[in-house]
Amino acid sequence: MIRTPTSRAEAQELDRTDALAPKTEGFNLPEGITYLVGHSLGPPPATAQTRLLEAQADWATGLVRSWNSAGWIDLAERTGERLAALIGAPAGDVIVTDNVSVNLFKLAAAALPHARRYALFVEEDEFPTDQYIAAGLGGLSGAEVRLLPPGGSFDALTAGGVLIKSAVNYRSSEVADMAAHEREAQRHGALIVWDLSHATGVLDLHLASDGARLAAGCTYKYLNGGPGAPAFVYAAQEIAAKLVTPLPGWMGHNAPFAFDSQYTPRGGATRFASGTPPILSLAAFSGALDVFEGVALPDLQSKARALGAIAIARAQGMGLAVLSPIEDAARGGHVSVRIAEGYPVVQALAARGVLADFRAPDTVRFGFSPLFLRYAQVWDALDVLDEILTSRSWDAPEFHARAKVT
Amino acid sequence: MIRTPTSRAEAQELDRTDALAPKTEGFNLPEGITYLVGHSLGPPPATAQTRLLEAQADWATGLVRSWNSAGWIDLAERTGERLAALIGAPAGDVIVTDNVSVNLFKLAAAALPHARRYALFVEEDEFPTDQYIAAGLGGLSGAEVRLLPPGGSFDALTAGGVLIKSAVNYRSSEVADMAAHEREAQRHGALIVWDLSHATGVLDLHLASDGARLAAGCTYKYLNGGPGAPAFVYAAQEIAAKLVTPLPGWMGHNAPFAFDSQYTPRGGATRFASGTPPILSLAAFSGALDVFEGVALPDLQSKARALGAIAIARAQGMGLAVLSPIEDAARGGHVSVRIAEGYPVVQALAARGVLADFRAPDTVRFGFSPLFLRYAQVWDALDVLDEILTSRSWDAPEFHARAKVT
How many Å apart are CA A77 and CA A93, to the nearest integer? Predict the structure, then answer.
């Protein structure tokens, strides 16, 4: 564990010994920006930009032949193989496909017949879309849908249904105990579909050894895959072969160019591919993964939590209520604090080059992507927050104007 | 109707008076390529490349702020509004989202409760994925799934279920009579989900006036949106408001940033948006639509059919069996001919710069995108086919080697 610095000098000292420090050079962030929104949309690694331009050139010159000559046809699969290493999964258990909503739907639908009870469970403070998807799937399939109180999912596993559960809560940043959940699920014939959106690329995940069987996640947050980059599905080999996807697209077919009327799924997680993936977006994400080459996941996690600990200590020093777990081991890559006037405060921070985000009614989230942030930079960003709060400079009319997306 | 040229000189004369001829300058096709695969993957219009680079720059400099500042948040909706004009639909009835498979699933699922019979119908010679999706949805929802004999869909409408039907058959290029189908469907309480993949961007479509209520389609064929570019959903205003999507993602929510636990769908077709769209791919497609500005759909259709008529007349002259309708009005933008040794013939054509595609066991498809092809160019391509067949130059070992994608 990295000791939380208590001064800028100590933060600088951590930068000097940071194994991940060279990775910051892989990003071309604009001058003067401290980007604490990597939990929302990661910035482009230079390699993502390079691969995107290559894909564009392949489209222009190779044209339809690029499905073969540029390897588009199995790009989703090859990218999934590389991503697998970042979640502690065997290479064949991950496929890049669709968006998180669609993937949660496919996995939960495929899981229902294999759970002891034909029912869907989701906590009330889960990411709203996860709740909507459970409701949508319940309406179509006839499965019972039960909303659980916040934190109630562990107890609900005894009922033996299908639980949709975030590995890291989008709001609080609280980490779920994956291994304990899976043990309890196994015991009671329940299945869990993990939402890894706020966990992948920042935590030291061990899906296989934690016994996780099903998961989906997005790639545009800590993985820096680009806006709306295609999401992924994880399905453990031992269960994948039994699963029937409700969305059998041609990319999940065992012989997509045979044009059979009968659907024969591919062997493992790849059966959850559906239609043609968006190659340009996928190429950018594939390039973004280059930045993770040689990165040890424990280093990633330690740095993210150490950066978060700076924010927590400084926020507490300003008298702010911290909504995220204080204990490092219980926390993901972002830290949420309560600021009653959070919206204008976030605008005032942005005007000073510090980007954070606001979630109504009063939550400000700071994301600590460990590959492009430096310790001293985070220290300085908290200085800016302190100044803005002390001077009440956020209370200027320009910081209250609302945009479509906050 | 354009008279079919009987000589290269007559073809050149058609080029001189072609209203769409200036559009060819909007594409940067490689020298020496005659691209007859626009029905599979359209080439990039220069405007698509420009918009893709802009989106990349917005990602790099605007970062997460680009959801507002670069208009990403409603890009799918604005792009859908522009696309609507190309299918004869009101602007608000189209949303760009997901892929065709997912969209057919969403629409058919939403349609089921509103059809007289809880059943799905699809013809056996439909695009295989459309059949898979019907089967997948049937398995999940309990709806009866019935495969129809080729051409049997019109008669099946009397049964009052949900029919998934291509406007243009992917293999034969046969055009369905949309208005007649819809009249029959209305009469019997049936609903039709049209697959417009091989129709959009090449035919003079009139979804609204033909009474079409539901449709999906891809954007990477005649629309030149890029490999795997996001697909679209059309839902007519009068029915859209009654429909419940089984995949209620946050982009289809009426107030996506309220983070409500309850799902409140948006007003019309936009409710069929699901998760975050792949912005880079979407931006390229959005740029590709610029090429269609000022294009009259009847001109598009007439030229595509005139080019197809050249291919049909020439192929018949070579003694080849034409698998597509001979009558222009019954045919889409591509022409299929039977060539027993189709695979090596297509390879031999490619070696001479003429790109076509092969569908096992013996179908060669030629696509006639009217925006970048010239009449004389198509005439010359058929000369090349004639030479290859006459000389049997296709029977060289290098033309028999198989690639992953044929």
Answer: 10
